[in-house]
Protein 1
Amino acid sequence: MFLRTVCRAQGAKAFHQNANVRFLATQVEAAKDNPRSSNFQNDYAKAIHFSKIPGPSKFVFLRSLMPGGKYYKMEFVDMIKRQREDYGDLFRFPGLFGGPEILFSFDPNDFETIFRTEGYWPDRIVLQTMIYYRSKVRPDIFGKYSGLGNALGKEWAEFRTAVNPAMAQPKNTKIYIPKVDAVAVDFVKRIHSIRDPKTSQVPENFEEELSRWAFESIALIAMDTRLGLISGKHDGRSERLIQASKDAARLLFNIEVKPALWRIVRTPNFRKLMKAYDTITNLSSEIVEEARTRLDEVGQGPRDEGELSVFEKLLKIDPLIAKIMAMDILFAGVDTTTASFTGLLYLLSKNLDKQEILRKEIMTILPEKESPLTVQNMKHLPYLRACIKESLRVQPPVNGLVRNAGQNIILSGYQIPKGTTVLMSAFVLQKEDKYYPNADKYEPERWLKRDGTPAPAKSAHPFIFLPFGYGPRMCIGRRFAEMQIETLIVRILRDFQVEWHHPDLKFTMKSANVPDGNLTFTFKDIVN
């Protein structure tokens, strides 16, 4: 656990560093004296050798991707499910063109083993293209920092320790409720203006509108700035920033996830990605510097720490950290927040009975459409939180959690050497009746207590449903994302009944799970 005080002085920084050293030294000494360590070594020696884990060879896999092959033109998620059928709950996915070999696991006991042994500085796959860009192309901006998502080891620990007090404490989310609510109110007005006056259906590019909402609200948190993306009061810079972010997200999937040659030769897509990174970096830097100047000019005088925005807190820690975190929050948050909200809205539009139960709950805190959302009334929405959990189960924004084994471990009876990359395919298990009865049904009630008994969903293995990760590397923006989603769905359902009158929507994997079709929702007015 990270300490919850801001490192304001060198003494505090030294304390953290010394604490890390003491912790590691203690762990090493404990391992030497612990008889269980010897038992594990014996068990590890008896486990099946890593080389015996099933999976296709590079040649077999590449051939299967070609015309006539079993995985030809198959969606990535469907391909992984097919490989599970072929090889079992643990299989090897070959590393291609310089990429790492990956193990795919479908066993929640394996997930628990990985997380319980990941250590103080969890290790995982990072975005190699972003590390290359920040260290080789733009060291003038990023200096020694890779950013929270791409740092490892001691660098990551120090960065996370620095930003945790500003980002991870619940009280820091609360001050944003009125501001994020203002963005949600603007978005509801936007829906009124763009929907068809006869059919109440929104245009086919509604996914673009949701992306703008996510960008606007996240920029408000990360940069203390309203970009004007919903009201239309924005400049070309904001448009270029959004487009570059979209380009980067699309290219990242093709370059970092799919087999790609960029590690061997600088492909056209790689050069496009570098250009997108450049645009994001330059424009974000401009906006951050403007926000910083604005704060300096306003001169708000001494205030309590709890009144400071996230951006102000980060500026006090280190202006460079503030800038890099702003970029990373935008880059990592927009697609996942948009995908999470899209899944929720779609499932509620397909389950009008659940939507009506939620609307009745919303009416208890918003008797009038103009009633404000506050820290107090947002506390009393248990069905809303159940609806969000259930949507994250049925339609998760991402398709698994990745870690590199923190030490030699045993998974499903096999030796797994330290550093081996493992993708935990929880997204598949979340939709299996074995763990969640009637798993294909959208049932928020499974997350609610009944007559004092635990919620039915709690009977599932605790390491299956981890939408924001687990442990020290749990998503640092979790509470902000939840607050954004809660605020917007409350405002939308207070104004509209949302309906879906088309064939079932399919989702496809890009940087996040995005709809493979148009979001042509119907928004009918709620009278009272």
Protein 2
Amino acid sequence: MYASSARRPPRRLRPALLFSAFLSASLLGACLGAGAPAAAAMRGTVAGGGTAERPPVYGLAGDFLCGRFAVAQSDMNRAAEYFERAMTLDPRNTELVEQAFVSALLAGRPEAVRLARRLPDNQAAQLLLADADAKAGRWDAAENHFHNLPRQGLTQVLQPLLVAWAQLGGGHVDAALATLRPYVEGQRFRGVYALHAAMIADLGGRAADAARLYRTAQTEYGGTNLRLAEALASWQARQGHTQEADDTLRALLEGGDDFAIALPALEAAVMRRPIARATDGIAEAYLALAAALRQQDATDFSMLLLRLALDLRPDFVAARMLLSDIEQTAKHYDAALAILAPVGKDDPLSAVVRLRRAALEDMLGHTDLATRDLEELSREYPDSPLPDAQLGDTLRAKGRFTDAITAYDRAIMRQGEQPRRIAWPLFYARGIAYERSNQWPKAEADFHQALELAPDQPAVLNYLGYSWADQGTHLSQAKQMIERAAEQRPNDGAIVDSLGWVLLRQGDTKEAVKTLERAVELQPEDAEINGHLGDAYLAAGRKLDAEYQWRRALTFNPDKDEAAKLEAKLHELAASATPTPDSAAA
């Protein structure tokens, strides 16, 4: 973690900040009242600069609490303003300075550099100051800054890369390669160090070294990622090995299907160096470590590194995509969308970014805008199934099954010779849309087609098996399918529920109850699963337990049809328990 996380409160506050809980709650309520304009301001200024309106004044404690609230909302512009104002009221409080600095850095605000000068022990602050020297061409000062970073924790990995790029910036190619040589020959992160050494040799005109180091990077990575593919393919193409470059870029499809739509643009830009100057290399180093940290769930420091990368290179689309993904995972959809906003249509990854923007617009409730964007992409990229596939998913999620089927039809028609991992989800998704629109024969055919392409896909096995069980047909085959799915995903509540459901349909009430109880443990707030357990309890003669389970299911916001079924079961149960006049007389 970095020295002062923007996502946790300071370790201690001065006594002046320790007001009553009532006052704190009142101030937080005021922050909540300012939340909507704050979010709106953030959308327009997330890349840098202040918000259009100054936030209200609440005093030291209030500004601090509102700053924390703004952080929780991922409104770093507003957080930076609140923390800096609190800092001016308590200027010797280093932790407030750190909060203001981190918020300013994450918002891309220019005062981050000024605040960094007050934090000699903060690693992120020192990195930003070194980057400022690099941008100004003060390469000796940048190198000294990087050299003086403490050799501990994550800095141990990052420091050699930064020093080497600073040396290249200063014109010292041999020194830069010498700095990285022990790390390329070492045991840890050899692929990363080899790739950066290769790019340094490439920029520095050391062709033989570059060729050797690119080969090492390709071997040591053990797989292809976007940045390795772009750098390696560019080198291969510039050396006249166009087929190798094409193969390198096509290998990207093994790691992420959404790159398929960008492949022609990536191929068209292959002669362009992905790293044009030393500052680009420093940004690349930040991205490499940020990606590694993201995989380890260290998202706070990953976000700081990505902001450092974008400060050096605002057009760094790969960094924007990763930072947006982090915000999306945290459900900060406005922030995720704003981060992608500067990416223009001329960038090779533009189509990928536009697909992600459409998904974010839908998450924000702007489904009409999302569908218009996807339809536009579909027209612009007639050879790609991806826009129509995403459009189908968007429409299906909104219950517009007929429109979704039309979109899936286009996607399937366009898929051509796509790998099976791309093709089977289209048939599976269209099958769901058919099933939900009461076109079972067509749905069943699509599920079978999906299983022909991917015979062991647990999602398809489960959906088809459950559908058969729900219809009371092919119960033995349905059970076998669901068991195959459960072997792959033993802790998936939906699959365990399907297994319990088919057992109930087969009349094995005891095992059905046991299995459905486990499904509820795995997904305790799923209305349908709780409803199924109620059905099993009724079959076992446990009417009171059944009533409780159905009523519990109603508290979990079931869809309209499911709610109606639950209400009907409760009504029928109540009616069966009400004595008739004849039975009362008897």
Protein 3
Amino acid sequence: MIGLRFGLMTLLLAVLALTGLPVAAQTPGAGPHIRMELIPETVRPAPGQEVTLAFASVPEEGWHGYWQNPGDAGIPTAASWTLPDGVTAGDLRFPVPERLMIAGIMNYVYEGPYALLATLRVPEDAAPGMRLPVAVKLDYLVCTLEICVPESAELATELTVGNGAVPGDRRARFDEWRAALPRPLGAQGSYQVNGDAFRLEIPYPADAEAEDPYFFPITDGAIDYSAPQMVARDGDRLVIETGARGAPGAIEGVLAIDEHRGFVLTAVPGNVAPAPAGAAAGGERPFAWQTALLAFLGAVLGGLILNIMPCVFPILSLKALSLAKANAGEGNPRREALAYAAGVILVCLVLGGVLLGLRAAGASAGWGFQLMDPRVILLLLLLVVAIALNLAGLFEVAAPGFVNRAAAHGTGSSFATGALAAFVATPCTGPFMGAALGAALVLPWAAALAVFGGLGLGIALPFLLLGFVPALRRRLPKPGPWMGTLRRILSIPMFLTALALAWVLGRQAGVDGMTLGLSAALLAALALWWVGRRQQRGARRQWAPALPLLLLSLAAVAVVRPAPVEAEQALASGAEPFSEERLEELQREGRPVFAYFTADWCLTCKVNEKTVIETQGVRDALAAADVAVLVGDWTDGDPALGRFIERHNRAGVPLYLWYAPGVDEAHVLPQLLTQAMLRDLAARDAAS
């Protein structure tokens, strides 16, 4: 059908030319009417790496280009590549289009700036320094409301085989373009044709946002493009009714949920029940409070369990001494518990609000997003080093007065401790918490923020109980000389946390960044040692001489930058980097697949890897069952991985997926793995 339209339009343009009415003469100004620029995400792709190219397109005012299925009229953009030997190009990928009705004819178009994306694969044997000239000719149609003109754009760029580094500004620009691409829905739809009526059923959560949903068919010849689409929501499904044009078997299309977001799906013939009378129509969104309540309770339970996870446990040492003092009647336990809870809940709400805002702006951010920035890691490193040295007795927080009031054992200290615990806890998605936060990302804002608040409540719950239940406090040991020894012991997990943060900083900012961070930490330690010495001598203005050194160490935060992305990452033996293409290839081969998603700043991930995944027994079991292991490293917040993680109703890492042979859907494993769990799964699939 598209080919027929192209032929007819070409014939019409030829007739116009032969009759002495050249098309260019009928256009207000010479073309091209879509300004195009070919932009590679990196100009130094690594051997074997895929590099994304963008065709950044800006239509002239009053003109529009066409989607891959142009609708009732128009032709799609076609690309003819000229590539070096061994380099291959994938299909063009189109963002979610707009609807344009002209004289009863429906067009699927782009009237504003847009970008088509394509992926090139560099051969494995490409030598570093090799030049890869890339040329492409785009043939496309550009129209106004009155006239259409076929145009061509010949574009070229040159790549050089290198290390795959992506500049930060370029990465942000491509993230924005990728956010406009429709994402896989992860569920199959069905449709039914009755005469000239077409009814489509799409699985879609009742609480998920959908503003003016519309189905753009990729498969030609299925629906009447110009017929209106009647959309109704019936529980966890969308029902779309429109005019039928045919039943071409399985059809592919894009469900647009607003002007810029959509999901790719496939629908097969089947029986589709009509939506009940009175079902919410398109744009209206019923809200299931039951789902929000379950997500809230899951977040509370997940936050409670998070207290024993390695992400949070070291920070809890900051409260141990004050709890012991509260047992002796010192301070106000209830007020301290409320202040600690307020700090935790407030930070969870702020982080949740920022996360929702980023996602609304099109970013593929997930829970723990702030720890993807090496500047934040360095700031935490300096803070944790200071806390560890304080617990070790190197110095005391005793002056000046405003510091006393804010940080002495009391509500100020409790609030700050709670805020720090919540901030550091965010890399973890423990049991129950992952599904709850995944649900929060599709709930309305108020309900989503309630879920994030529930997470904070769960983290604070043990201290709230100790603060408000005297019987529980009486079970704590009485204060005594042992508290000095305990304080020194509690400095150990803080030093270990600092060591882990230094390692994460090295992974994010490279050796230079880690060296800068350790130098800043050493400078801060020297300043605090100086404070401690002055405190021992009873000197006045004990902090004044050290403040310049502390400020100088903090200046390193403004200097540290992410290291260039390395093309190859260190993976466990036998593992491969995750990509959806590789996953599909392994599934077609009938192999079982274990895919896990991790990040250097996720301590729970690292514990699972060292104690379970990378142990010799598990490796042998996976190898014996011919299980393919795919690793998705989300340390730098890769948006492609972020979108894949989101499709499994998770807001962050860790995420562990097991694909049995012949089964498309993944079995989501718990966030806390055991060796027996993986060995049993491998043995089961080996037997089958």
